[in-house]
Amino acid sequence: AARYYDMIWRTDRTYVSAAFGLARARLAAADRAGAVAVLDSVPTISRHYVAAQQAAIAATVRGRSLAELGEPDLVAAGRRLDGLRLDIERRARLSAEVLERALRWIEGNQRVAGAGTANTATLLGVPLTENSTRRKLEETYRALARLVDGTGERHALVNLANSVRPRSLF
Questions:
Q1: Burial of 65 (0-12, 13-18, 19+ CB in 10 A)
Q2: Tell me: the pLDDT tens digits for 12-46?
Q3: Which of 30, 90, 108, 112 is the most exposed place for a label (fewest CB within 10 A)?
Q4: Contact 102/77 with Cβ under 8 angstroms?
């Protein structure tokens, strides 16, 4: 299928579904960079451009082990997300996904805020440190909780916010 999607996409860029199909095929073949490159080739004037960028963010962070996910990937996903015009809920949900992966990556690499070398990388406007990422993720979960209609989902999001809140002495 990838061969046909590629042929269609190279022939006519108005068939954006071919780009999404090709990206899925490349992801299935463990070619994340290729999938993201295809999604990046969707023209900015296309009505599917934002969806392609959202898919590129998901392809960058979703389903990757901590060993294959790196700081440049997280920063690139955050930068891509910052450049998108999304409604509040979609931005918050995608931000939460990126921040969750970043927090797992930080914890997996035993990066402790304030210890070792200074990290100058930023993710979604905050330094890529454990405490800053936790604060931003907590803020994002609370924003999502204010947006949802169901009480059960709201309580679940508040519980998630409480679970990632940075630990304090007081």
A1: exposed
A2: 988 999 999 999 999 999 999 999 999 999 999 99
A3: 30
A4: no
